[in-house]
Structure formats: C-alpha cells, structure tokens
Amino acid sequence: MIRIDHFSYTYRNREHPVLRDISLSLPEGSMTLVTGPSGAGKTTLCRAMSGILSHIYTGTSVGSIAIAGRDMMEYDGIEELSHTISMVFDDADAQLIFTTVGEEVMTSLENSGLSKQEAESELVRILDLLEISHLADRAPYTLSGGQKQKAALAATLALGTQFLILDEATSELDEEARTLIFSILRKLAADEGKTIVLVEHMIDEAAAYADTCVLVEDGAITASGTPEEVSRIIRDALPPITKRPRKAGGAPLIEAEGLVHCYGDLRAVDGVDFTLHKGEIIAIVGENGSGKTTLVKHFNGLLKPTEGTLTIAGTPCNGHSISVLSRHTGLVFQNPDTMLFEDTVRKEIAFGMKNIGKDPNSIGEVLEEVGLTGKEETNPRHLSRGERQRLALACVVAMGQEVFVLDEPTTGLDLAESLQIMEILMRLSDEGHGIVMITHNPGLATTFADRVLKMSNGKFIAATEG
After folding, report:
1. Residue 34: pLDDT above 90?
2. Which numeric CATH code is attached to 252-465?
3. What is the pLDDT of residue 66?
4. Cα 161 from chain centroid?
5. What is the Cα Rg of the chain in Å?
6. 359: pLDDT strictly greater than 80
7. What's the predicted TM-score (pTM) here?
8. Does domain 2-236 match CATH 3.30.565.10?
9. Long-range contacts made by residues 310-318, C-beta under 8 angstroms, separation at least 24?
C-alpha cells in the first residue's frame, strides 16, 4: 500500500509549495489514474511516491509518505527503495542508456537477482508481452518515440517491483499500443497484486482499466472518484469544441514525389507522394514505427531522400543544406528536451531569432500566445513536460517560417492546453503558413486538419478530409 498523509512539498529556491496537503491511500492490487493540467504537480507527486523527493532532492516537506507499511524516511535511500518501487519517466530517452533494447531489459533482470537462465527466459516473455521482440537488437536511438516508451516500460517491468509508477509513459504511443499497455497494467494489478499509478491525460481510454482517478490542480487534489466521474468533471469545465471548416489550399509549399528513405535494408519511407499547400493543416496518423517521423525530418533537411524528389517552398531538397531548408521549415520534435539547451526561457526563444537576424523584442508576444507569460527567466528544465512542449513550439513560431512541422505537438498536454495549441496552429494557417502535424489523437486530427493521411510501413494507405 502507498499511503500519503497531508503531504506538502516546496522545491529548493521556490517560495510556494508545488504539492499542497496531499492525502491519498492506494491499496495493493489497485490501478489509480492521476490527471490534471501540465504544471499542476503530477510529476512531483510521482517523485514523492517513488522516494526521489525524500532521498535525492533538497526541498522541504511536511506530512508523511509510507510505502509497504514503512515510512519513506526509514528506507536506506533510493537503492533500497528501488527493490520495492519503480518509475517510468515521461522522457524515455533519459532511461535508455545501453546499446540495444535487449541489453536494457536484461540489465534490469540481472539486477533483480535472477539466474542467467531465468533472466533469458524472462527477457523473451517481457519483449513478447509488449510486442517489441523485433526490437531486441535495435539501438534505442533508432527507435520511434513510442517504441522508446515501450522499451523503457519493458526495462522497468523487468525489475519486478511491487509498486509501479508511470509518469505519462504512454504519451507517444498510438491508440492500439496504449490499449495494450493499459491491459497489461490491469493484469499486473489483478493477478499479481501490484499497485499501479498511471499519470495520464487520455483518461477516457484508460477508464475501463483503472479503479480510481484523482485530479491534481495547482498542487492539490481537487477531485477523486471513478475515472468516469472525474472525466465528467473535466469535460464540464471545458469550452465546446467546434470542428474547423475545411479550407481550400493555396500554392504548394512542400512537394514530394516517390520519396524513399532507407536505414540500411529498412525502407522507412517507401515511395511517398505528398503535397502541402499554403494555409493547409495536414495531420499524419499511424502506428508507432510506421515512418511518420522519418518522413517529416525530410521537410527541413535533417534527412535526405534515398530516392525521389522533394521541394520545400520552391527549393529542391537535394543540393541544399539544413541551414538553407530550415529557413523555410520549422520543426518541433517529438521530445521537446532535444530542442532545449539554454538556461532561461527567454534565451531559448531568442537563440533562433538571432540566428536569422530577427528582432527578439517580440518574445513577450510569443510567450503570451503559448501561455508561458511570466516564465521568461525560468530554467526550461524546471518546467513541466507540457510547458516544455509549449516552449519548443514558441521557439519555432518565433522564427516565422512558411512551414511548421510538429511531431506530436500535444504530447504531455491536457485537453484544454491541446486546444490552445490547435488555436495557435489555426491562426498560423489563417496567415498562410502550411502546417504538418503528426498525432496519435484521432479527435484532434479530424477536428482541426484539412486532410488526414494514415501511414503504415512507410506508405500512405488512406487519406480523408478532416
């Protein structure tokens, strides 16, 4: 059991508590959803339950947390706690440190005390369970975001702990993969008595698998009950969602014909024809590993076609550098942390603007547009995942290119914040910018895109009007 009793926490050098008077009891064999806006304190709550706050961070706390009947401070640090409770973080890249997926999982199994023969058998079982056996010999850096999340979960499951915390660990998975993970977690709770905590924005999808749901807002629990009850509270507080009228496309901004990209023998993009027009929003959907991210990396020159032709804003891709093509196309990566390296929000946005000779005086307007006003001097590493996602978008929007490509732009965002992002994209579309958006959220795709293109095995297999 996890028991939290009137717990509050304030990070070092912060004036106000990030968690306020949290009380929560999670029995053995239960699966609990935690939801709420980005920046509400969900990740800090996960760190509290895992022992990271008590044994690594240097902030101040009041109240208590008990794991398996022992007060958190009675454990001899994270090393002892790691045999009881484990956590899958929202950034899979931070957890994947070995040369192959198989090595990641095997290392966890060896640390759990299994013999070599037992570990090898368990490795096969876990990879099969998560449907990633074909990735065993792949290096983590070659995987899609969703595949990385599965690999990180596999390594964590291999530890065999009684308590498991997942901090938005399914955010980059497609709908079918999320359903698989939710069903696995439910089975672990029901059959093995594990206590599962799942931080999740898409609680409607997870509702059938969880016992309870808690809503965290501004560091406090403001609602708790069944997932259906909490979901109803959240929906009632949202504005109505209006379907965007489809727009007629203007002049072509991206034109691809017979585009192929190979990683060795793998044809990750396999003969794609694609056109994006001025003022158009295109959503690209499909399973993890279907080739979506590989395709869009061509649009600013990060990748060059193995075969075929590609033109960006009238500029042929072949023969031109990234610096030339990126003046036409801004790309927001699937993981915002790969884009952020400065020590303040202001410097992050100003960096790109200065590189193209643009006056950085408009930074305040950009921050207001993405809802980060007042965060100018904050270190990006101190922002929540959702806030970092919006900062990455702000860095690109500030550049003002003709084309914006966004790989999962609403990852880590709640529905209200996702709608805010879509409003920004619609405004950019109205100004004549072309938008390409990869998403695993079918509702956003059909509501806001002019066209929805489905990808599988490196090809477009379906196209519908939004």
Report:
1. yes
2. 3.40.50.300
3. 96
4. 24
5. 23
6. no
7. 0.79
8. no
9. 310/254, 310/255, 310/256, 310/257, 310/259, 311/252, 311/254, 311/255, 311/256, 312/253, 312/254, 312/403, 313/253, 313/254, 313/402, 313/403
